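#structure-requests
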Amino acid sequence: MFDLIRMQSAIRDFGFEGWLLYDFRESNILARRVLQLPDSMHTSRRFACFIPAEGEPRRLVHRIESGVLDHIPGEKTVYLRWQEFEAGIATLIGGAKRIAMEYAPRNSNPYISRVDAGTVELVRSFGAEIGSSGDLVQLFEAVWDESQWQMHEAAGQVTNAAFSVAWTFIADAIRANGVTTEWAVQQAILEHFEANHLTTYSPPIVGVNAHSGDPHYETGMTEIRQGDFVLVDLWAKLKEPRAVYSDLTRTGFVGEAVPEKYDAIFQIVARARDAAIQTVRDAFAEGRTLPGWQVDDACRKVIEEAGYGPYFVHRTGHSIGQEVHGNGANIDNLETHEERLILPGCCFSIEPGIYLPEFGVRSEVDVFVDHQRQVHVTGGALQTEVVPILKQY
């Protein structure tokens, strides 16, 4: 249900006179989600909807697709010519001086920047100052309701169990045949997902030895034998409408005892992970606002002080939603300066890593802040050591 009262309250809270939601040929998925357009609705013409801080919304649609926003209340203008579109934008804004759009200055955050520069120029030509709608988007796209939180917990139980499936599969294969492959372990995980009513947009990563040092490695047919180091990164969600992902990464060693070189790197990564989690817990316990970049800094500081800063080559974490990389605040001060706030009702990953030429360690958990501002680490107990696979399975 389109909640105009809640939306207008948020627009006022963030200091805007209105929110201009614009899309052309499905280029602005954020606007489409906020306006509650179904994924099955395909559009080919420009449309816009202005939600003022006070009063009725105003809609601008093309004659060919004049019904696209009919579920939104308020005045509707239908245009045909480009001149009518430009005049219609001026009418929608109605003299508002500070409006929100899916925009980030200097493209500082490409996850938000969904409106093209020409449209920004057009809106500015009518005297409007444009600010980023990033935190507004979070409220209406990235914040989970109770059913989504429950679906995440249910998915987390299955994804957590998937590691035991993977380690057991490896141990059994090594004892029986002395060898298995990355691909075979990946298939065992996918079979586990299917048996438990989970789906995923792409298969999990299973990387052995040097492959574990590639954060986006594509699993192949490389053999896994005793004495190898293995990283497993997996993500999945329930096969239900509006379901949200669980996304976890753990590491194991194919042997009875884990060599010191692996354990030493793992412990640094684990400390960085725990520092990030504690930063979130402290901020919400103290009632402080918390932008994503501050959590990244707390995590990255641990790895940098240990001397491995150049080997931590990605952001600390990402928003999690109906897509595994969601539309809320990321945990990032490396690739972008994430100024969006971590809001109650949002979930994100914490996944520091150290990637060396011969192996890489990543420890990934999911963190959910509920609507009572309580911080939950989901997906089972925190990994505290590299798993000695042939000892424990």
